[in-house]
Design brief:
Elements (H helix, E strand, L loop, with lengths): L2 H14 L3 E6 L7 E5 L4 E2 L12 E5 L10 E3 L3 E4 L1 H5 L24 H16 L5 E11 L5 H11 L4 E7 L3 E7 L2 E6 L2 E12 L10 H20 L6 E10 L2 E11 L7 H8 L7 E2 L1 H11 L10 E7 L2 E6 L3 E4 L3 E10 L5 H23 L2
Antiparallel strand pairs: 1-2, 1-8, 2-6, 3-5, 4-5, 4-15, 7-14, 7-18, 8-9, 9-17, 10-11, 10-16, 11-13, 12-13, 15-16, 17-18
Helix pairs in contact: 1-4, 3-8, 4-8
């Protein structure tokens, strides 16, 4: 077997034992990392700011609730690199509690209903103080007998410039994704966060033109980040962009913001708590958009548009917004996909955007199912 096949087999064995773990590869690295934790060593902080002083791998929902907790995997077994991961003796790991958890109810809406919800959203934006709202939907795809380990390796091979992950966690469930959006990156003396919004299909020639709708959509996010900076007295800072970021089947507008890490020396958890959710996944103004989402979306977002990543692991933080993701049930892959709605949105275009965004995961699923 190749190393890729060996790693896929190891992941399948971990899933067969229902081990609690996270495996991920950072954008551009192609180097997988894995953290395994005993179920009794998991931590469920009640608030985002309770992450201050902790370390491990964090998996956070859109909203923390009793049935959707913030999960922190404390470092049990941690390995980086294929050879190191393959050195793990899975046979020595105990089978974890395999009691069937209650499966969440996934509400699937048809195209006509989605288009009506977008029309309602545009009408509300035009007659209220809302400027932007993210409206999402669920896209189911039937599972076969394909290897989830092989699917993860396929996704990793297809999307090298995304945070590609697979997590299996009690209470949260089994999730896989390839997200391009940085929420927070802290390395050494610098912290970086990103304003990412606006979407179009990826071009083979990388020659992009952006319309007013996408430019405005991304500007809402940048403006919000600066409001958060003001509240935490963050200045000076540097910016780079807006520029185009290609990820999977789509491209986005992105601006990076960097500032001195000492500004948040003991308040990093508080900063993340204030930062999330950003208008890129909620809307603007945030509180109004959040209330509207709870009414217009029939499904529960669960961990979609939450965030995940290593937290103070090896003295660094790399958090990503949970986009281009899916929840894996015994019968289905349930993909989550959405788009930013403004007064300039066209409902049919928004439907197509959700299809394009889901293409990153669907193409990997179809490639593995054809083998």
């Amino acid at each position: 077997m190749t190393d890729t096949e060996k790693l896929a087999h190891l992941l399948d064995k971990l899933l067969a034992k229902n081990c609690s773990f996270a495996v991920w590869a950072l954008p551009g690295s192609n180097t997988p990392e894995i953290l395994l934790t005993d179920q009794e060593d998991m931590i469920y902080p009640s608030q985002l700011n309770k992450l201050n002083g902790q370390e491990g791998f964090v998996f956070a929902p859109y909203h923390i609730e009793e049935d959707k907790p913030l999960v922190l995997l404390k470092p049990g077994i941690y390995q980086k690199g294929v050879d190191a991961i393959l050195s793990i003796d899975v046979d020595q790991l105990a089978v974890q509690n395999t009691a069937q958890q209650t499966q969440p109810k996934h509400i699937i809406i048809q195209k006509d209903d989605y288009l009506k919800s977008i029309e309602t959203t545009i009408e509300t934006i035009n007659t209220s103080k809302l400027s932007k709202v993210i409206v999402s939907r669920l896209i189911p795809h039937a599972r076969g007998d394909e290897s989830l380990g092989s699917l993860y390796m396929q996704l990793l091979q297809q999307t090298p410039n995304a945070m590609v992950y697979l997590v299996n966690l009690p209470q949260a469930g089994l999730w896989m994704g390839a997200t391009p959006e940085v929420l927070l990156k802290s390395e050494g003396k610098t912290i970086e966060t990103v304003s990412l919004a606006g979407t179009q299909s990826r071009r083979s020639d990388s020659d992009y033109s952006w319309h007013t709708k996408e430019i405005e959509e991304q500007a809402f996010v940048s403006r919000y980040l600066l409001d958060v900076f003001y509240r935490f007295n963050i200045h000076p800072y540097t910016t780079q962009g807006p520029e185009t970021l290609e990820s999977g089947k789509v491209a986005h507008l992105m601006t990076s913001f960097r500032f001195a890490a000492k500004k948040l020396a003991h308040k990093l958890g508080d900063f993340v708590a204030d930062l999330h959710p950003t208008p890129a996944v909620c809307g603007y103004p945030k509180s109004r958009a959040d209330k509207f989402i709870s009414k217009i979306e029939q499904h529960d977002r669960r961990y979609y548009t939450g965030y995940l990543g290593p937290w103070r692991l090896n003295e660094s933080v790399r958090l990503f917004v949970n986009l281009r993701c899916m929840e894996i049930t015994p019968e289905n892959y349930v993909l989550y996909s959405g788009g930013g709605i403004t007064s300039r949105s066209v409902p049919e275009d928004e439907w197509e955007e959700t299809i394009n965004k889901a293409g990153t995961l669907l193409s990997a699923i179809e490639a593995v199912q054809k083998k």
